[in-house]
């Protein structure tokens, strides 16, 4: 309701007198209208809170009680608050879909299919339920081998030895899709000391916590042009391809390898190629100068073991190794131009450059938009930047610009970005793509760099320029910031730690800085990104430390003994650090910190100014020199020998990169201020989701069965 609508309801006499007295009554009605809008919005919100589809996150537990939904452990430990982080925690602790399907789940039959649906509803994890009773060896009763009983007693393969001719069955041995008969195991599946899967009442729920991310129509990395050797990954490293899950045909269906993000096996690709290959499926190949031609025919694809690159396909064929993410083309049948690939891979979450949804960052004021990519007005980012600088000379008011990059191509000509005072430049990838900026060559030198330079300015010539990098994968070099630059923001970017990866995802230049700051007052903000060492070559002329803010990111120096934050002489970096929900691999030597909160610091920590700042809910090595600490591990537990930080993967490129190991101490796995894990993966809320899923598993498992939760790899 607007003030004019309220004012129109008054008699004309009062409005006329109010106009004579300076419209004081109108000013009062403006305040009343504002509060009336608040009351009206609250009334509408009360109506929305009656329905599970539209209610607020904090109302979901109350609606769950109305239908008999059991409050999960994650909800009981959730603090109250209106911050965005609390809203995300409420959504994870009290799944809306689980409450909505409570009545249906209690009336369903079929334990295996129900448990799989619960994993999706409670934790959004794909799952496969296995009844181990069906996989036990059975001694066949000979007296029942009659024509009338063969229909009911049909498990004749359970009494013999393993058929070694069934190669596909042997390949799935020990996996969630194992179909080979096993002898009975006495321990229960849920035993904490020595679990045993194969029992009469054993039920296992195998879940995939890692997420599946696509790479669509991207150039393959050519390893040996003369031999036709390629890698799916644009970084040239081995990558295990995973399945793009397809929906299950019915609610009673038990998931198979095509319904979950399982790693693709060579044997599975050989026997069921049509399930994995093609547009919109798990992988696809194109050849030609552009990725818009027809894909390679299905009959040209052959699965092979390319571990030693000795396999040579026949003329017209392409050999694919899904386990290593490699391809081989016949040398006499090399593609005319590039080889383009689409595939899927596993990663821990929405971190770094990737094809996932990102909120758009828009500059303040009116900005000019320059589009880069196939079919756009500019072919390269350098062309768009040159056009922007020309437009600024002709129209001085066009200081704000957005350069949008579409497609997953590789840019190798971007080396310099020049900024004038007052500029606001955003280099961003279109939502759903991951372009690559390749700097330098595959070597450990520092020649390859993206230099961001503030041209001829100081505080008297105008406000300092700002630049945003959003959604890029930068390899082969780092970013250098020089001159009069006010702010550098990195969002959802990956600056490959070690600049380039070698075989086995080993960094070729460990400790080489991904970001260099030289004589610039720049304020650096990093959000949901992965980068290597940050180095301040020469501090700002004012003598003040450069502010560096890290949020939901990974700072990886590749080794815990190598400096992740450093100065030019190896001493304390002139940096004022603020880090929240960040994982740091490497030593941290800085002048000062404001806040270190919910972080994992895997390396020696030294802060010069210990009288200011605070460190809370973090893990850092014993003996670190920091400001006042609160609820930090391992000193909080008093057992540093047991509360040791362990990662499932420490090298970038691994599917379990910076993910805490399953045997990591509970004090670390639940060491954040809200009971989640500290570090870059905090907002996945895995401890709460695991607790919720275990509670639902115990609630819906039939009496006499012992159910256990297994994490598939």
What does this structure look like?
The protein has about 725 residues and is α/β, with parallel strands linked by helices. The protein is about 20% helix and about 25% strand. It is built from 15 helices and 37 strands. The strands form six sheets. It has an 18-stranded parallel beta sheet that branches. Strands 4-5-9-8-7 form a five-stranded mixed beta sheet. Strand 8 (about 320) and strand 9 form a beta hairpin. Helix 9 (about 110-125) packs antiparallel against helix 15. The chain is globular and about 110 Å long. The relative contact order is 0.09. Mean pLDDT is about 85; it is low at about 150-155 and about 440-445.
Number of strands: 37
Q: Tell me the strand percentage band.
A: 15-25%
Inertia-based shape: globular
Helix content: 10-25%
Query: What integer is the average pLDDT?
Result: 86
Major sheet description = 18 strands, parallel
Helical run tally: 15
Return residue spans where pLDDT drops below 50 for at least 5 consecutive residues: 148-153, 442-446
- Rg calculated over all Cα atoms: 30 Å
SSE inventory with pairings:
Blueprint: H1 3-8, H2 12-20, H3 24-48, H4 60-66, H5 73-76, H6 84-93, H7 96-100, H8 102-107, H9 111-123, E1 127-131, H10 167-171, E2 202-207, E3 211-219, E4 221-224, E5 229-231, H11 266-271, H12 273-276, E6 284-288, E7 301-303, E8 318-321, E9 326-328, E10 338-347, E11 368-372, H13 381-394, E12 400-405, E13 410-411, E14 416-419, E15 424-429, E16 436-438, E17 449-454, E18 466-470, E19 473-475, E20 478-483, E21 487-491, E22 494-495, E23 513-518, E24 523-527, E25 530-531, E26 533-538, E27 546-551, E28 554-556, E29 563-567, E30 573-580, E31 583-585, E32 587-597, E33 600-602, E34 605-607, E35 614-616, E36 629-630, H14 666-669, H15 686-700, E37 706-711
Parallel strand pairs: 2-37, 7-8, 11-12, 12-15, 13-16, 14-17, 15-18, 16-19, 17-20, 18-21, 19-22, 20-23, 21-24, 23-26, 24-27, 25-28, 26-29, 27-30, 28-31, 29-32, 30-32, 31-33, 32-34, 32-35, 35-36
Antiparallel strand pairs: 1-2, 3-10, 4-5, 5-9, 6-10, 8-9
Helix pairs in contact: 9-15
């Amino acid at each position: 309701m607007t003030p004019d609508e309220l004012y129109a309801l008054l008699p004309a006499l009062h409005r006329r007198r109010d106009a004579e007295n300076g419209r004081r009554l109108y000013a009062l009605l403006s305040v009343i209208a504002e509060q009336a809008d608040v009351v009206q919005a609250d009334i509408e919100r009360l109506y929305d809170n009656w329905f599970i589809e539209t209610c607020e996150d904090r109302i979901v537990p109350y609606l769950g009680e109305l239908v008999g939904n059991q409050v999960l452990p994650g909800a009981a430990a959730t603090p109250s608050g209106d911050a965005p982080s609390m809203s995300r925690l409420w959504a994870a602790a009290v799944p809306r879909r689980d409450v909505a399907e409570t009545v249906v789940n209690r009336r369903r039959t079929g334990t295996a299919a129900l448990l799989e649906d619960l994993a999706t509803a409670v934790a959004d994890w794909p799952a496969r339920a296995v009844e181990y009773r069906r996989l036990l060896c059975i001694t066949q009763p000979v007296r029942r081998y009659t024509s009338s009983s063969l229909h009911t007693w049909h498990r004749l393969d359970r009494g013999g030895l393993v058929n070694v001719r069934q190669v596909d069955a042997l390949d799935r041995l020990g996996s969630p899709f194992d179909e080979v008969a096993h002898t009975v195991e006495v321990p229960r599946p849920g035993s904490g000391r020595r679990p045993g899967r194969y029992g009469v009442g054993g039920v296992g729920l195998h879940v995939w916590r890692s997420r599946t991310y696509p790479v669509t129509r991207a150039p393959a990395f050519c390893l040996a042009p003369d031999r036709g050797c390629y890698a799916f990954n644009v970084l040239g490293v081995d990558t295990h391809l995973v399945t793009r899950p397809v929906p299950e045909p019915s609610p009673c269906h038990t998931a198979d390898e095509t319904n979950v993000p399982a790693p693709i096996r060579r044997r599975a690709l050989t026997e069921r190629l049509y399930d994995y290959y093609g547009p919109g499926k798990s992988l696809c190949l194109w050849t030609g100068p552009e990725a818009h031609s027809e894909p390679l025919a299905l009959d040209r694809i052959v699965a092979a073991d390319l571990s030693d690159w000795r396999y040579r396909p026949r003329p017209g064929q392409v050999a694919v190794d899904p386990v290593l993410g490699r391809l081989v083309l016949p040398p006499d049948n090399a593609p005319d131009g590039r080889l383009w690939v689409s595939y899927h891979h596993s990663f821990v979450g929405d971190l770094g450059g990737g094809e996932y949804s990102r909120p758009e960052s828009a500059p303040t004021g009116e900005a000019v938009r320059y589009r880069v990519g196939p079919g756009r007005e500019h072919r390269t980012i350098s062309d768009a930047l040159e056009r922007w600088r020309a437009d600024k000379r002709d129209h001085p008011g066009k200081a704000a610009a957005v350069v949008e990059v579409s497609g997953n191509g590789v840019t190798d000509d971007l080396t310099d970005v020049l900024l004038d005072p007052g500029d606001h430049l955003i280099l961003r990838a279109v939502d759903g793509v991951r372009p690559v900026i390749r700097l330098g060559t595959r070597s450990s030198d520092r020649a390859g760099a993206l230099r961001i330079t503030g041209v001829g300015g100081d505080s008297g010539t105008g406000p300092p320029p700002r630049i945003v990098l959003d959604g890029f994968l930068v390899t082969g070099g780092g970013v250098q910031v020089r001159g009069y630059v006010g702010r550098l923001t990195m969002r959802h970017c990956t600056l490959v730690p070690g600049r380039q990866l070698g075989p086995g995802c080993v960094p070729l230049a460990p400790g080489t800085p991904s970001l260099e700051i030289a004589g610039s007052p720049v304020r650096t903000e990093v959000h949901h990104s992965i980068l290597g060492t940050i180095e301040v070559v020469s501090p700002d002329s004012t003598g003040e430390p450069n502010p560096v803010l890290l949020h939901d990111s990974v700072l990886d120096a590749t080794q815990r003994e190598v400096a992740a934050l450093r100065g030019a002489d190896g001493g304390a970096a002139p940096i004022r650090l603020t880090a929240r929900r960040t994982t740091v691999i490497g030593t941290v030597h800085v002048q000062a910190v404001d806040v270190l909160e919910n972080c994992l610091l895997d390396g020696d920590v030294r802060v010069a100014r210990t009288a200011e700042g605070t460190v809370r809910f973090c893990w850092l090595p014993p003996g670190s020199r920091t400001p006042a600490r609160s609820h930090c591990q391992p000193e909080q537990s008093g057992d540093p020998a047991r509360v040791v930080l362990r990662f499932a993967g420490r090298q970038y490129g691994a599917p379990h990169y910076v993910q805490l190991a399953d045997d990591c101490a509970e004090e670390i796995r639940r060491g954040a201020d809200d009971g989640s894990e500290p570090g870059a993966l905090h907002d996945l809320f895995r401890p709460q989701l695991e607790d919720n899923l275990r509670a639902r598993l115990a609630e819906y498992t039939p009496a006499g069965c012992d159910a256990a939760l297994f994490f598939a790899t």
